[in-house]
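Consider the tokenized backbone below.
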């Protein structure tokens, strides 16, 4: 059949239905590069052909060109939010270990069809309450608990931050008996703060992987509820789950939204959630031994001072933009399994001054987009070069600049306790 269709194409080279059938037959036979060529030709003739774009994204995924697949899928989903597009996007996000994004995409699928089932997603993102020890879902909503396979060896550079975490978190867990002899508890809370996109979530996951602990990744939407009392109940259930699965790391992103200064919170309900959170941190009605709570925030100055009391978030770590070694490692990781040629990661890292990890990913995506545009013309995927990525890096402004503009003011004028001295050190400012 394939031979017949290819023969027919010689007489009708711009026949889109014919080309599409040829591409699908190539896909069935596992000849993804051949299918890719025909699909690119279809898109060149009909740029709005969604079916061809989806099949092309599928080909990219099968060939491990994950970023290229993601870009196409996000473009499709802007216009049509179908489950099959979201499902492939979720696979792409899982492949790149973007678990937060994968969870959100999975939730979008469930919002469209609550009866949707996917065993791969269940295994990696959620599982029934009767399933494995390292994942669960409760009756009231999805909660995520997982033993990460990421550790500090997967984070390039950032040695001072890793050493500080090791000293304050990992050593106590490795030497439990010594700590018990001195009557010190294992666990507690640490606060990671810094510009957005600099790896706070990745550090928290790597910390859990380093100590071989369970990991609960909590979003604000997992806690806050419109019904009075439900937010406090959700918060309590998360801590109770952690207590049943020690050692356990609870990671709460954007913690300033949950633990805002009570003087700035007008509604009584907001204050009761904060009070409940403080009670859970103190372990008034339960034992928090073996539970580590890691909070991440871009704006620590909005956090209620009560959270910084000893025994709560008494360890505060500044997560700066990645250094040159870390940026080179990020470029290396983000460019794996992509068509590249003579990439100089160190040169890219030096050019990407003040870039966050998210900025680096965005620069690579921009470079891929320009390559895709030229590939649509002749159907030949061209490798990324150092020059291509340098071009996009020079066009971009680092997202960290705006954050440091605000942070500098707090570090200079609202820093009586010396909490933000690390920001001044990073900016080479003497107070």
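A designed sequence for it:
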């Amino acid at each position: 059949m394939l031979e017949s269709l290819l023969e027919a194409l010689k007489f009708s080279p711009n026949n889109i239905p014919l080309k599409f059938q040829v591409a699908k037959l190539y896909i069935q036979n596992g000849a993804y590069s051949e299918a890719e060529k025909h699909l690119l030709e279809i898109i060149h003739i009909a740029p709005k052909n969604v079916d061809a774009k989806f099949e092309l994204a599928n080909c990219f995924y099968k060939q491990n060109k994950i970023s290229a697949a993601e870009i196409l899928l996000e473009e499709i989903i802007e216009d049509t939010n179908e489950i099959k597009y979201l499902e492939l996007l979720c696979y792409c996000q899982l492949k790149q270990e973007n678990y937060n994004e994968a969870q959100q995409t999975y939730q979008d699928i469930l919002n469209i069809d609550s009866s949707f089932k996917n065993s791969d997603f269940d295994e990696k993102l959620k599982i029934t309450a009767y399933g494995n020890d390292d994942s669960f879902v409760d009756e009231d909503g999805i909660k995520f608990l997982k033993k990460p396979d990421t550790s500090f060896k997967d984070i390039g550079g950032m040695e001072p931050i890793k050493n500080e975490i090791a000293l304050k978190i990992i050593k106590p867990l490795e030497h439990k008996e010594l700590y018990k002899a001195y009557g010190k508890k294992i666990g507690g809370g640490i606060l990671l703060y810094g510009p957005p996109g600099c790896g706070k979530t990745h550090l928290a996951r790597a910390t859990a992987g380093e100590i071989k602990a369970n990991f609960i990744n909590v979003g604000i939407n997992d806690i806050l509820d419109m019904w009075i009392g439900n937010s406090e109940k959700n918060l309590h259930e998360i801590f109770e789950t952690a207590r049943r699965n020690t050692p356990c790391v609870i990671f709460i992103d954007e913690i300033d939204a949950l633990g805002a200064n009570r003087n700035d919170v007008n509604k009584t309900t907001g204050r009761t959630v904060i009070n409940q959170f403080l009670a859970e941190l103190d372990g008034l009605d339960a034992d928090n031994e073996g539970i580590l709570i890691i909070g991440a925030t871009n704006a620590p100055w909005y956090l209620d001072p009560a959270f910084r009391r000893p025994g709560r978030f008494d360890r505060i770590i500044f997560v700066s933009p990645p250094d040159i070694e870390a940026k080179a490692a990020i470029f290396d990781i983000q460019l794996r399994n992509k068509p590249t040629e003579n990439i100089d990661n160190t040169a890219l890292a030096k050019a990407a001054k003040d870039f966050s990890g998210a900025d680096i990913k965005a620069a690579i995506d921009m470079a891929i987009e320009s390559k895709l545009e030229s590939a649509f013309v002749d159907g030949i995927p061209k490798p990324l070069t150092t020059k291509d990525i340098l071009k996009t890096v020079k066009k971009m402004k680092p997202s960290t600049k705006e954050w440091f503009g605000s942070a500098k003011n707090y570090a200079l004028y609202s820093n009586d306790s010396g909490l933000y001295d690390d920001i001044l050190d990073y900016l080479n400012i003497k107070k």
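The CA atoms of residues 262 and 271 lie 6 Å apart.
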